[in-house]
Design a protein that fits this description.
Length: 358
């Protein structure tokens, strides 16, 4: 079996925390090249990994013969040009969310990948949480019944520190909407289905962070109606004081339907809360062991922090899809669907009105 070579473009925290440990678990795969336009960050990554092929120009690494696939973990503005260049070179692509800063670019990425016949993945990491996988399974089996309500709430305390490119509209395109709510939009699509219309509001509550202007929202809320008639309420904030940040902060999803209610919290990766219609209330529902890792993944769920380690299955899914010449889960198409909702939410917040989705 030919060894698959991976190039990673963008060497910040997400690469060191998620992508590199994930690919380290993938047999017959190796990260062969690193790229970042910041020489200091690139050198730090080189020292941390021992990878000797490095460049500040993505064009150099994606053109290499020993690179079969490219991971894009840069500011959002640069996702489309890097992805399109990689696709033009015949490389498979995994891209961090959101795919782009507008819907047209996201669609162009998906169309190009399909036309070239390469594998494509949107890094909606939380699809790989064991409890999320089991929840999707139960809903598909009819445990929810007719969907009535979907709600999600992501609350973190990022304080007023400088967020780098994430607080600059020209580089990120959106703040909390693309950064954190995009995952919860994908949750909604995965568990309930497409949205029909929505109304949204955003707030810039900290316009200056450590002396640098911030022109992107710290808080966002969306109220939606799904095509199947269910309602949706989604909220996300970087300014929920005392809530901590990262995977130990508040991240909650609840679904109500004709047959029952399910509650999912990322902090309890191996447990759901479930209540039947007319029952006494919600009670713990253990996630069976067969859902603890992605099918076929070599990861041992007993090793490492379970609130972090599930993310490594994302790399396995990407490699397995390449090996077996099948579609990745989730794909660029899932990223495009989320991007359409994000674009509608931005328009709704600007106009103060409901927006119909295509």
């Amino acid at each position: 079996m030919k060894k698959l070579g991976i190039a990673i473009v963008g060497c910040g925290g997400i690469t060191l925390q998620n992508h590199l440990p994930g690919f380290a678990l993938c047999h017959e795969t190796s990260v062969v090249a690193l790229c970042d336009n910041n020489p200091a960050i690139l050198e730090q990554a080189r020292q941390a990994t021992g990878i000797t092929v490095i460049s500040t120009r993505y064009e150099e690494v994606i053109a290499r013969d020993d690179v079969d696939a490219v991971v894009i973990a840069t500011p959002n503005l640069f996702h489309p040009p890097i992805a399109l260049a990689a696709i033009a070179n015949g490389k498979h692509v995994m891209c961090e969310k959101p795919l782009a800063i507008n819907l047209a670019d996201a669609r162009a990425m998906a169309d190009a990948a399909e036309a070239a016949g390469v594998r494509h993945m949107t890094a909606f990491t939380y699809r790989f949480v064991p409890a999320m996988r089991y929840l999707a399974h139960l809903i598909a089996e009819g445990g929810l019944g007719k969907p009535y309500h979907y709600r999600s709430c992501r609350l973190q305390d990022w304080g007023t520190r400088n967020l780098g490119w994430r607080q600059i509209n020209a580089l990120a395109g959106s703040g909390e909407l693309g950064d954190m709510l995009s995952h919860r939009i994908d949750f909604a699509h995965h568990l309930i289905g497409p949205m029909r219309r929505l109304v949204a509001q955003t707030k810039i509550l900290v316009p200056e962070r450590e002396g640098a202007p911030s022109d992107l929202e710290d808080w966002v809320a969306v109220m939606a109606e799904f095509k199947n008639g269910a309602t949706g309420v989604l909220e996300s904030s970087k300014l929920a004081r005392g809530r901590n940040e990262g995977w130990r902060s508040r991240d909650y999803v609840e679904l109500n339907g004709s047959e029952g209610t399910f509650e999912f919290t990322t902090g309890t990766w191996n447990e759901l809360q479930y209540g039947k219609a007319g029952g006494p209330g919600l009670a713990p529902l253990a996630v069976p062991r067969e859902f603890w890792v992605w099918p076929g993944s070599p990861r041992d769920p007993a090793i490492g922090d379970p609130l972090v380690a599930f993310r490594y299955d994302q790399a396995f899914e990407f490699i397995d899809a390449i090996r077996n010449e099948r579609s990745c889960v989730p794909s660029f198409h899932d990223g495009v669907q989320a991007q359409a909702v994000m674009e509608a939410a931005k328009l709704s917040a600007a106009q103060g009105t409901w927006i119909e989705l295509e």
